[in-house]
Amino acid sequence: MWRRILNSPIDWFILVIPLILTITGIITIYTITFNQGRSALATDQTIFAALGLVALIILMFSDYRFLRSLSGVLYFVGLVLLVPLLPWLAVKLPFTLKVFGAYRWLDFGFFQLQPAEVFKLIGAIFSASLLTNFVSRINWRRALSYLLLALAPVLLVLAQPDLGTAAVIAAVFTGVFLAALPPGRIIIALLIVFALAAPVSWSNLKPYQRERVEAFLSPTADPQGQGYNVRQALIAVGSGGLSGRGFGQGSQTVLNFLPVAHTDFVFAGFAEATGFIGSLTILWLYILLIFRILALARDSTDTFGSLLAVGIAAKFIFQITVHIGMNLGLLPVTGIPLPFMSYGGTSLIIDLAAIGILQSIHIRQKKLGFQ
Q: What are phi and psi for residue 262, nearest 5 degrees?
């Protein structure tokens, strides 16, 4: 197997960078949780990484084009998995799990699945399949149909409620739509519709969601309430200084002043340990990864492969930007994980599976001259 990997025309940047980030994430999670007696989380993350690596290898050596024929089935299955998490239904089911006031997980005993995380990748596959034959030929009917199909999973995830993940799924569908080069008049019309819908969306947010936005706009107004997490994250980032305080040495993370530092605020935990130099290094790794994915999308001669790469890039770009932004107090807290580094089995396995798909696109582009 390893000989086959070494002899394949792999994009080593797209392969190695996620592996470095994953290992760094496991180390960060371990050092954050060790003194809290929760080091088993790092062990779990290692197991998830191993499962994700298996998925990566399988998808790498599979022809990614089979995903196009399965896109409709994947979309349907994804919606079916989201339906049991509707609050009015989830409260009646024994296999749903409520955490922090939201039903986001299906509990199968040996494994907890977060369907919304799976749909981030399904959204990229399904949207690329929908628009493959209509690049530069999107009319009003196709745009409206696409919008309705995109809204279905977004609204189901919003109902959990999970605003952050719903926004990621919306970003994936939007990225692929823009890559399909719709007419400017359709883009302008959709922007107007979204602008008009913004007040309605704001009024329908849960109270805690509105409070997070208000805390972002005025973080000092409620320093012990909604502004607490952001304030502690900023202290953690600032205390890292130039070279950091060292893994397991940061007061904000080790003493648990920074809540859920292994998930929502893993970047702040890493920044406290490694400082400005470490944070900048991680940021550049993410930038290089995104650059390579977008280059792959640009160079692919297969429209489906190109749009699929754009969808995956949109997922990563949005998550990285929002996660780091909220850790630095530049964006509202939404609970979006940092790809490859935040704790979470479903998210890590899906991220590594996405890398396998990207490698499949690259390998078939180079090795087969695209057949």
A: -85, -5
